[in-house]
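[SOLVED] Predicted holo structure with S-adenosylmethionine

Edit: marking solved, answer below. Original request kept for reference. I posted the sequence and ligand SMILES and asked for the 3D complex as C-alpha coordinates.
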Amino acid sequence: MRMRRIPWAAEYLSQSASRVFEPAEKIGRWKEDQPQGRLHLEIGCGKGGYSASMAALYPEDTFAAVEKNESAAGLAAKKFDEAALGNLSLIYGDGAELDQWFKPGEVDVIHLNFSDPWPKKRNAKRRLTAPAFLKQYHDLLSSNGQIVMKTDNPSLFEYSTLAFLAAGFEMEEISVDFRREEHPEDPLTEYEQKFVSQGKPIYRSVWNNGHK
Ligand SMILES: C[S@@+](CC[C@H](N)C(=O)[O-])C[C@H]1O[C@@H](n2cnc3c(N)ncnc32)[C@H](O)[C@@H]1O
Protein backbone atom coordinates (compact mmCIF):
# COMPACT_ATOMS: atom_id res chain seq x y z
CA MET A 1 0.00 0.00 0.00
CA ARG A 2 1.40 3.39 -1.02
CA MET A 3 1.93 6.08 1.56
CA ARG A 4 0.04 9.28 0.70
CA ARG A 5 2.49 12.16 0.05
CA ILE A 6 2.67 14.61 2.94
CA PRO A 7 3.61 18.03 1.44
CA TRP A 8 5.00 19.47 4.71
CA ALA A 9 7.11 16.39 5.60
CA ALA A 10 10.47 17.55 4.17
CA GLU A 11 10.32 20.92 5.85
CA TYR A 12 9.12 19.43 9.12
CA LEU A 13 11.93 16.88 9.12
CA SER A 14 14.48 19.66 8.59
CA GLN A 15 13.77 21.08 12.07
CA SER A 16 12.25 18.24 14.10
CA ALA A 17 13.53 18.04 17.68
CA SER A 18 13.11 14.25 17.76
CA ARG A 19 15.17 13.59 14.66
CA VAL A 20 18.78 12.53 15.04
CA PHE A 21 20.44 14.35 12.13
CA GLU A 22 23.83 12.65 12.39
CA PRO A 23 23.13 9.16 13.78
CA ALA A 24 26.73 8.09 13.07
CA GLU A 25 27.86 10.56 15.73
CA LYS A 26 25.84 8.66 18.35
CA ILE A 27 27.47 5.31 17.65
CA GLY A 28 28.19 3.57 20.95
CA ARG A 29 26.40 6.33 22.91
CA TRP A 30 22.70 5.65 22.37
CA LYS A 31 22.18 4.47 25.94
CA GLU A 32 24.27 7.23 27.49
CA ASP A 33 21.31 8.76 29.38
CA GLN A 34 19.82 5.44 30.51
CA PRO A 35 22.64 2.87 30.68
CA GLN A 36 20.60 0.45 32.83
CA GLY A 37 17.72 0.23 30.34
CA ARG A 38 17.50 -1.56 27.01
CA LEU A 39 18.01 -0.02 23.57
CA HIS A 40 15.12 -0.78 21.19
CA LEU A 41 15.37 -0.23 17.47
CA GLU A 42 12.28 -0.26 15.24
CA ILE A 43 13.06 -0.56 11.54
CA GLY A 44 10.37 0.77 9.21
CA CYS A 45 8.38 2.57 11.91
CA GLY A 46 5.91 4.16 9.45
CA LYS A 47 3.93 6.88 11.25
CA GLY A 48 5.70 6.04 14.52
CA GLY A 49 2.79 5.03 16.75
CA TYR A 50 4.40 1.84 18.02
CA SER A 51 7.70 3.35 19.18
CA ALA A 52 5.88 6.35 20.68
CA SER A 53 3.61 4.05 22.71
CA MET A 54 6.48 1.77 23.71
CA ALA A 55 8.65 4.69 24.83
CA ALA A 56 5.82 5.90 27.08
CA LEU A 57 5.23 2.36 28.41
CA TYR A 58 8.91 1.65 29.13
CA PRO A 59 10.41 4.98 30.24
CA GLU A 60 13.59 3.31 31.52
CA ASP A 61 14.40 2.03 27.99
CA THR A 62 15.70 3.98 24.99
CA PHE A 63 13.93 3.87 21.60
CA ALA A 64 15.27 4.69 18.15
CA ALA A 65 12.91 4.36 15.18
CA VAL A 66 14.14 4.21 11.58
CA GLU A 67 12.03 5.20 8.58
CA LYS A 68 13.18 5.82 5.01
CA ASN A 69 9.98 7.18 3.47
CA GLU A 70 9.92 10.98 3.73
CA SER A 71 6.17 11.31 4.29
CA ALA A 72 6.00 8.57 6.91
CA ALA A 73 9.12 9.93 8.63
CA GLY A 74 7.56 13.42 8.70
CA LEU A 75 4.44 12.07 10.40
CA ALA A 76 6.54 10.06 12.87
CA ALA A 77 8.71 13.11 13.66
CA LYS A 78 5.60 15.18 14.41
CA LYS A 79 4.19 12.43 16.62
CA PHE A 80 7.49 12.08 18.50
CA ASP A 81 7.85 15.87 18.95
CA GLU A 82 4.31 16.09 20.32
CA ALA A 83 4.93 13.16 22.69
CA ALA A 84 8.05 15.02 23.92
CA LEU A 85 9.61 11.91 25.48
CA GLY A 86 13.30 12.08 26.31
CA ASN A 87 13.82 8.40 25.43
CA LEU A 88 12.51 8.44 21.84
CA SER A 89 14.19 9.53 18.62
CA LEU A 90 13.81 9.17 14.88
CA ILE A 91 16.39 8.29 12.26
CA TYR A 92 15.25 9.35 8.79
CA GLY A 93 17.25 6.85 6.76
CA ASP A 94 17.59 3.35 5.39
CA GLY A 95 17.78 0.32 7.69
CA ALA A 96 20.48 -1.07 5.37
CA GLU A 97 22.88 1.42 7.01
CA LEU A 98 22.41 0.37 10.64
CA ASP A 99 26.05 -0.62 11.03
CA GLN A 100 27.08 3.01 10.51
CA TRP A 101 24.87 4.18 13.38
CA PHE A 102 25.10 1.40 15.98
CA LYS A 103 28.10 -0.41 17.31
CA PRO A 104 28.24 -4.24 17.47
CA GLY A 105 26.40 -5.48 20.57
CA GLU A 106 24.78 -2.09 21.28
CA VAL A 107 21.16 -2.95 20.43
CA ASP A 108 19.00 -5.00 22.80
CA VAL A 109 15.72 -5.39 20.89
CA ILE A 110 14.96 -5.02 17.17
CA HIS A 111 11.29 -4.58 16.20
CA LEU A 112 10.10 -5.44 12.70
CA ASN A 113 6.46 -4.44 12.48
CA PHE A 114 4.48 -5.22 9.33
CA SER A 115 7.52 -4.93 7.12
CA ASP A 116 6.90 -4.59 3.39
CA PRO A 117 6.50 -8.18 2.08
CA TRP A 118 8.14 -7.60 -1.34
CA PRO A 119 6.35 -10.71 -2.74
CA LYS A 120 8.27 -10.91 -6.04
CA LYS A 121 11.37 -13.08 -5.86
CA ARG A 122 13.50 -10.51 -7.66
CA ASN A 123 12.81 -8.09 -4.76
CA ALA A 124 13.46 -10.62 -1.97
CA LYS A 125 16.69 -8.92 -0.90
CA ARG A 126 14.70 -5.82 0.09
CA ARG A 127 12.76 -7.75 2.74
CA LEU A 128 13.90 -6.67 6.19
CA THR A 129 14.36 -10.36 7.05
CA ALA A 130 16.56 -11.14 4.01
CA PRO A 131 19.90 -12.81 4.92
CA ALA A 132 21.99 -9.62 4.58
CA PHE A 133 19.72 -7.80 7.05
CA LEU A 134 19.76 -10.75 9.50
CA LYS A 135 23.56 -10.82 9.43
CA GLN A 136 23.57 -7.11 10.29
CA TYR A 137 21.05 -7.61 13.13
CA HIS A 138 23.09 -10.49 14.53
CA ASP A 139 26.19 -8.32 14.71
CA LEU A 140 24.39 -5.36 16.31
CA LEU A 141 22.46 -7.28 18.94
CA SER A 142 23.72 -7.63 22.50
CA SER A 143 24.45 -11.12 23.84
CA ASN A 144 20.87 -11.60 25.07
CA GLY A 145 19.38 -9.44 22.32
CA GLN A 146 16.07 -10.20 20.65
CA ILE A 147 14.25 -9.62 17.38
CA VAL A 148 10.47 -9.29 17.57
CA MET A 149 8.58 -9.60 14.31
CA LYS A 150 4.87 -9.02 13.64
CA THR A 151 3.09 -9.35 10.31
CA ASP A 152 -0.30 -10.03 8.77
CA ASN A 153 1.38 -11.76 5.84
CA PRO A 154 1.73 -15.58 6.09
CA SER A 155 4.17 -15.79 3.16
CA LEU A 156 6.51 -13.23 4.72
CA PHE A 157 6.18 -14.99 8.08
CA GLU A 158 7.10 -18.35 6.53
CA TYR A 159 10.03 -16.86 4.59
CA SER A 160 11.28 -15.02 7.67
CA THR A 161 11.00 -18.04 9.98
CA LEU A 162 13.21 -20.07 7.65
CA ALA A 163 15.61 -17.16 7.23
CA PHE A 164 15.97 -16.68 11.02
CA LEU A 165 16.64 -20.40 11.49
CA ALA A 166 19.18 -20.48 8.63
CA ALA A 167 20.96 -17.48 10.16
CA GLY A 168 21.33 -19.31 13.50
CA PHE A 169 18.73 -17.41 15.56
CA GLU A 170 16.80 -19.33 18.22
CA MET A 171 13.03 -19.08 18.42
CA GLU A 172 11.68 -17.98 21.81
CA GLU A 173 8.01 -17.41 20.99
CA ILE A 174 5.68 -17.93 18.06
CA SER A 175 2.01 -17.13 17.52
CA VAL A 176 -0.21 -17.26 14.44
CA ASP A 177 -2.96 -15.25 16.16
CA PHE A 178 -1.21 -12.95 18.62
CA ARG A 179 -4.21 -10.71 19.28
CA ARG A 180 -6.43 -13.68 20.24
CA GLU A 181 -5.44 -12.65 23.76
CA GLU A 182 -4.93 -9.24 25.29
CA HIS A 183 -1.32 -8.00 25.22
CA PRO A 184 -1.17 -4.69 27.09
CA GLU A 185 2.63 -4.98 27.11
CA ASP A 186 2.74 -4.69 23.32
CA PRO A 187 0.95 -1.70 21.70
CA LEU A 188 -0.69 -2.04 18.28
CA THR A 189 1.02 -0.37 15.31
CA GLU A 190 -0.99 1.73 12.83
CA TYR A 191 -1.05 -1.15 10.31
CA GLU A 192 -1.91 -3.63 13.02
CA GLN A 193 -4.93 -1.59 14.15
CA LYS A 194 -6.29 -1.77 10.63
CA PHE A 195 -5.71 -5.51 10.23
CA VAL A 196 -7.15 -6.33 13.66
CA SER A 197 -10.27 -4.26 12.88
CA GLN A 198 -10.63 -6.33 9.68
CA GLY A 199 -10.48 -9.54 11.76
CA LYS A 200 -7.12 -10.63 10.29
CA PRO A 201 -4.82 -12.78 12.45
CA ILE A 202 -1.50 -11.29 13.50
CA TYR A 203 1.60 -13.49 13.19
CA ARG A 204 4.36 -12.83 15.71
CA SER A 205 7.70 -14.41 16.55
CA VAL A 206 10.52 -13.60 18.97
CA TRP A 207 14.11 -14.65 18.25
CA ASN A 208 17.37 -14.48 20.13
CA ASN A 209 20.88 -14.69 18.78
CA GLY A 210 21.55 -17.77 20.89
CA HIS A 211 24.91 -18.66 19.39
CA LYS A 212 26.58 -15.35 20.20
C1 LIG B 1 3.98 -1.54 5.72
S1 LIG B 1 4.73 -0.19 6.53
C2 LIG B 1 4.49 -0.54 8.27
C3 LIG B 1 4.63 0.68 9.13
C4 LIG B 1 4.56 0.44 10.65
N1 LIG B 1 5.65 -0.42 11.09
C5 LIG B 1 3.25 -0.14 11.08
O1 LIG B 1 3.21 -1.33 11.44
O2 LIG B 1 2.24 0.59 11.08
C6 LIG B 1 6.46 -0.54 6.31
C7 LIG B 1 7.33 0.69 6.51
O3 LIG B 1 8.69 0.29 6.47
C8 LIG B 1 9.44 1.28 5.79
N2 LIG B 1 10.68 0.64 5.29
C9 LIG B 1 10.77 -0.37 4.40
N3 LIG B 1 12.05 -0.70 4.18
C10 LIG B 1 12.80 0.12 4.98
C11 LIG B 1 14.19 0.28 5.18
N4 LIG B 1 15.10 -0.48 4.53
N5 LIG B 1 14.62 1.22 6.06
C12 LIG B 1 13.72 2.00 6.70
N6 LIG B 1 12.37 1.91 6.54
C13 LIG B 1 11.93 0.98 5.69
C14 LIG B 1 8.51 1.76 4.70
O4 LIG B 1 8.88 3.04 4.19
C15 LIG B 1 7.16 1.76 5.44
O5 LIG B 1 6.92 3.01 6.05
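OP edit: The mean pLDDT is 97. Thanks to everyone who chimed in.
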